[in-house]
Design goal:
CBS-domain; 3 domains; two-stranded antiparallel ribbon; 460 residues; SLC41_membr_dom; SLC41_membr_dom_sf; 5% strand; magnesium ion transmembrane transporter activity; MgtE_transporter; transmembrane; mainly alpha; three-stranded mixed beta sheet; Tetracycline Repressor, domain 2
Length: 460
């Protein structure tokens, strides 16, 4: 086994795990070579080390974690994907988990505690220092996917009458108690209420004898522990924040959230919205076939029900279809194009809602835009489909029927693609989760009803 393959520079150059490195890791696990495995992982960037471990089969990964025990670095543990981290925490002994909690910032430690069973969590917390236990228990008391779960309770705060020099000396004195990464110093009053922020860049540029009150600025955002993480992510995007303080209802400073955590949240929320639009959940390397089936089957059942609604519309016109066979040939064209048009508008609308871009007058403008876009696209494709139908079936009336139905379906698809998610948002539902079923059903119903209805009137 060679160690040259794990140099940080080389790991950064290759986005995938080096096959030779992976073979060496598997060989070290088979030979129970804990020393080489631990040293190799420690020399890698934590994210690269996590990738290498996740490239192993799930059973081999568990064996590796069991082999490493307390020698598995905590910063690698927190980089693992959820299912792998949960498996690692389950395999690790209590002492190793407690040691990892001591090394991690409070927000990352809370993530580890979430993976534990209640009894084991209590047992491990009892072995921690009282102040550390109190901080972690407070983090767990907040709702999942809230600012309280994301925040870390390690931060640097100082009274407004301190000078720059005093603040810098204080930060040096507390040493290891400093957060691993921070960008701001928070200015507080005697009641521990936040009154201002001093950026580290400003602090380092300012003379030592200047008071913090003279250089502090008002916070750009006001985060509360119970705020949903999606709203927190919106605040970070809107104000281009690197960090933000979290205050309780009384204005007292209780924690801070940094941009590294928000990058994960933004990626998670975007992926969640995308998968919700497709009515699926994310699949992980540890998921079984049964897990995948359970996640997808309910939505397929809903789609089955809505498909029968469309079929019921078709059955109303079975006499017309029997007399004019061309209707059966052309029906899918109207439905397919209308469904795609509705899905396009829906995707844009859901993304705009998530970005807070469809409030007030913006929503009304978006509705008008989608209707007009649907009309223009419908007109273009109505002409195209009409011409194709005329050439194919040599029936001018049939061509006019499908062209008119196509135009009506496109306008309806544009309208439903924007109104359905806005309506679900107004009702308090998640537009990304439920919109697609309704939009596709509405466009199918309009496509079949307009096409077959017009055909019954004009052709028969």
């Amino acid at each position: 086994m060679t160690e040259q393959s794990v140099q940080p520079a080389q790991a950064a150059e290759t986005p995938n795990v080096d096959p030779d490195l992976l073979e060496d890791i598997i060989e070290s696990i088979d030979e129970r070579d804990t020393r080489w495995l631990a040293r190799t992982l420690q020399r890698m960037h934590p994210a690269d080390a996590a990738d290498a471990l996740e490239a192993l089969s799930f059973d081999t990964f568990s064996e590796a974690v069991e082999l490493l025990g307390g020698e598995l670095p905590a910063d690698i543990l927190i980089e693992l994907r959820d299912s792998y981290r949960e498996e690692a925490v389950e395999v690790l002994p209590d002492a190793a988990v407690a040691s990892a909690l001591d090394e991690l910032d409070s927000d990352d430690a809370t993530t580890i505690l979430e993976d534990l069973e209640d009894d084991r969590r209590e047992r491990i917390l009892e072995d921690l220092a009282p102040i550390d236990r109190a901080q972690l228990e407070r983090g767990l008391s907040y709702e999942e996917e809230s600012a309280g779960r994301l925040m870390q309770t390690e931060f640097v705060a100082a009274p407004e009458y301190w000078t720059v020099g005093h603040a810098i000396d204080h930060a040096r004195d507390i040493g290891e108690e400093l957060p691993e990464v921070f960008y701001e110093l928070y200015v507080i009053d005697p009641g521990h209420r936040l009154i201002g922020i001093v950026q580290l860049a400003t602090l380092l540029r300012t003379a030592r004898d200047v008071q913090l009150s003279d250089i502090m600025k008002d916070p750009l955002s006001s985060l509360k522990p119970d705020m949903d993480q999606e709203e927190v992510a919106f605040q970070f995007r809107k104000y281009s924040l690197a960090a933000a303080p979290v205050t309780d209802e009384g204005g007292r400073l209780v924690g801070m959230i940094t941009v590294d955590d928000m990058v994960d949240v933004m990626q998670e929320e975007n992926a969640e919205d995308l998968l919700s639009l497709l009515n699926v959940t994310s699949a992980d390397g540890a998921d079984t076939v049964w897990d995948t089936v359970k996640a997808r089957a309910p939505w397929l059942g809903v789609n089955l029900f809505t498909a029968f609604i469309a079929s019921a519309i078709i059955s109303l016109f079975e006499g017309a279809i029997a007399q004019v066979v061309a209707l059966a040939v052309l029906m899918p064209v109207v439905a397919a194009l209308g469904g795609n048009a509705g899905s396009q508008g829906l995707a844009v609308a859901v993304r705009a809602i998530a970005e807070r871009q469809l409030d007030g007058d913006a929503a009304r403008r978006a509705i008008l835009r989608e209707v007009l876009s649907g009309f223009v696209n419908g007109l273009i494709f109505a002409i195209g489909v009409g011409v194709i139908s005329l050439v194919w079936f040599r029936d001018i009336e049939l061509a006019l029927v499908i062209a008119t139905a196509m135009l009506a379906t496109f306008v309806w698809a544009g309208l439903s693609g924007i109104l359905v998610p806005l309506g679900l948002k107004r009702l308090g539902a998640d537009p990304a989760v439920a919109s697609s079923v309704f939009v596709l059903t509405l466009t199918d119903v309009m496509a079949f009803f307009s096409f077959l209805g017009l055909a019954s009137i004009v052709l028969l």
